[in-house]
Structure formats: structure tokens, C-alpha cells
Amino acid sequence: MAAVRLVCLAVVLVLALGQALETSKVKDVPVLVRTLKNLSRGPPQQVVTKRANVQEKWITQKLDNFDETNTETYQMRYLINDEFQTEGSPIFIYLGGEWEIEQSMVSGGHWYDMAQEHNGVLVYTEHRYYGQSIPTSTMSTANLKYLHVKQALADVVKCIELLKSENPQLANSKVLLAGGSYSATMVVWFKRLYPDLIVGGWASSAPLLAKVDFTEYKEVVGRAFLELGGQKCYDRIQNGIAELESMFANKRGAEARAMLRLCNSFDDQNDLDLWSLFGSISNVFSGVAQYQSTGDIEYYCDYLLSFRDDATAIANFVYWGWGMPSCIDATYSSTVEYYLWGVDHFDAGRPWYYQTCNEYGWYQSSGSSNQPFGTKFPATLYTTLCGDVFSSQYGNAQINSNAAQTNEDFGGMEPGVENIYMTHGALDPWNPMGHGVAEGATLIANASHCSDFGSIRSTDSAELRASKEKLAELVRQWLA
Fold this sequence. Notes:
Number of strands: 10
Keywords: Glycoprotein, Hydrolase, Protease, Signal
Helix content: 40-55%
Distance between the termini: 49 Å
Oligomer: single chain
Number of domains: 2
Low-confidence stretches: 10-26
GO molecular function: dipeptidyl-peptidase activity; serine-type exopeptidase activity
Strand content: 5-15%
Mean pLDDT: 93
Structural class: alpha/beta
Signal peptide: 1-20
Radius of gyration: 22 Å
């Protein structure tokens, strides 16, 4: 069974490339890009139990919502399911984030079930620069200046206005928002900027605090393996990665390169190559923890513990996780080259990386000693990458200044909003950047990232079911 899970992990990591693989049939994807894309993929597709007539529609949006002199426009895509629509139907909008939207989010799941209860119209908006909603002819750094959360939130305002103006039955409808991960953050910030346009919202796994060196992330990943996989599994990860670090540091680099199946271009005397490699190793474990469901980590730990020594276990596990290519391209230069290639070959990896440089940081580094993934991927790896991919202006000081501006604009951990229900998995590596129980959020035991969008079912834990039922009751109050 563990082998089956590992095959699934490899398949998921490859599929997570999405549009990148479609547009890069002759372009290899370095493992750092591959693993970062996996960590920013969209919410899990929902189970759809009946056929829904989901329509694809387009809105003409301003390229720059805040410059009246700029008359350029672009076409923003959204999906709508109006099967329950009646006079005065509430509008249930799910916000798209750094991914391509798809039909299941408005055809099944808990959001769909609540819309059905209230005869609501379901809408799924696509974020500018992702999926098919591309505003500019290239993704050059100059063109990416129109990619900002404030622009995306203003797009949602226009969408709401259009839905109401074009459909008489919805002219006076109440509006609710939902989102997961970055789009959950958007729900919170929309309520802060436009409090009168929505009556309430659901933010699942919303990071609120912009932070460049996000050391807490790997701590929670480690804790997930410790709590669910056990001490032996945690020790194997920690010891195996430490041994690989030691091999490179003590003139056994050739042996380590062979063990990890690295391409000949890898230079173990180059800090940026080593940082890219060990960041990519840690990200395989992060992907497991961030999206784990019942039994996943236990199966992976069984596999890790089936080897006789620590380093061999790590090498084999990450080889599966990286998709088993002929050799592993972990060089820093290939990562830079790939993101530069993305200027003319649209790929969600480049715009999201730009947003981290320009707004949030959230670089999941090895800066904490309270995690098992070693010491070889500092935040400097990611800030250096910002400068090399986008512009020299994106140095460490500027990136920290950008994150500070985001916190000033949106309040950081004190967004000052009402009628927003925030949920987090207790083992979600993102939850340290969001509200906890003390601030009124719900932490769901043993759950991870965006794990609560499914319909209420008998297999839900007591905590998960209680959270879904609480949200359903809040929606009833907001719509009363």
C-alpha cells in the first residue's frame, strides 16, 4: 500500500504542474519550480453527485482599476451555476486564487450544499494572470505591475456589480464569499476594503500576516510527521537529511549526487545549487503534510522506515516525489531560466512567484532549528531568486518593505473584519500565519490545508463536522 501511495504522490506532483507541463513539452521543469507549484495548487476538486449546468462567462475588466487614464481592458473568466436561482437568490461566490478555476467547486461540496439550501446562485471567479484570465501579452516584469491583490479584489467588485445589474432577479441579492489559502486571504481583505458589499464569508486556511522568512511552516510540517508518523519516522527524516548535508560538506559529494540521481550540471560547491536541492527535498515532505488526509503520512513513514539507512530512505522517497525523471535538475540557474522562460510561456509559477516578491514573502525556510529538514535552504535562496528573475530592485530590503506594506494595508493579524468565519487545520503548515482559537478561528484536529470544503459526510471527524455545521448556521444568520 505504501508503494501505491508513493506512486500517487509522484503523479500528484507531476499533475500539479498543470498548464506549465502543457506549455512546456520541450522545456524541463526544475524540481524547485515543480515542488513550489505543487504547494500552491488549487483546492481539492469536490465530489459531484449530480450533473450541473455550469456556464463559462467572461467580464470585461479594466487592466488598472485605479488609474482612470488607463483605458486598457482584459477578459476575466468566471463560472456560474444558477440551477437553484429564484427571485432574490443570494450569490455564493468562490474566489479563485493562483490556479485555474474548474467546475467542481460550484457543482459539489459544502459551499454548493449551502447554496442549495438557500436557493443561491454559485459563482467561481478566476484571478487575473491565472488560468485563462491573462490581461497582458507577456508576463514581463513591467506587465506584472498589474498583478496585485488590490487589483484582484477590485475585479471581484466589478463582478458583483455586473451580476446584479444584468440579472433582475439578483438586483437586491445578498452576497457571500468563500476561498481557500490565498483566496481565503482575499475573502478577509475584501470584507476589510468593501464591508458593505458582502454579508459574510468563509476563509479556509487564510494566511493573514505577510512575512518574508516563514520559519514556522517547516516546523508544522515536522510536527505533522512526528504526531502522525511517530518519533522513528521524524528521526529518519532528520538524520537522513543531516547525513546528506554532511556528505556534501565532507568531500563525499559525488556519492551524494549519485544517490540522489542528480544531473551532471549540479555543482555541490555552489551554495545556491545546494540550497535549491535541499529546499526541493523539504518541499516533497511539505506537499505530503500540506495536503495529507487520513493515513497518508503513516503510509509514507512505513516506506521511509523500510530502508536500512537514513540517507538512502530520503533519496528514494524524494525521487518518487519528484516524478522519477532520468536525472534530477536541481540547479539554481535552471530555476531562474525556467521563470524567465515564463515571460512568454504563460505558467502560473511565474506570476505567483512575483506576488511573493512584491507582496507577501512567505518563504518557507530552514531558519528554525525546531524542524527536521536541515539548514540548507535559507530565505536568502528565495529573495535572491526574486532579484534574478524579476529585477535587481527586488533585494532583501525591498521584499521586506513590500511585506511590511501589505501588513500595513490589511492589518496583518488584526484585519478588523466581522462576519468572516476562519478555519484552519491544526496540522496545516500555513496556520501560524492566520488566526487561531484565541482570535475566534476554528482549528480542526489532525486536518491540513483547505481540507474542509467537502460535503458533510459520515466519515468526517467530530471536529470537522462541527465546524461545517457552525458555518451552515452562520450562513443562515447572515442571510436571515
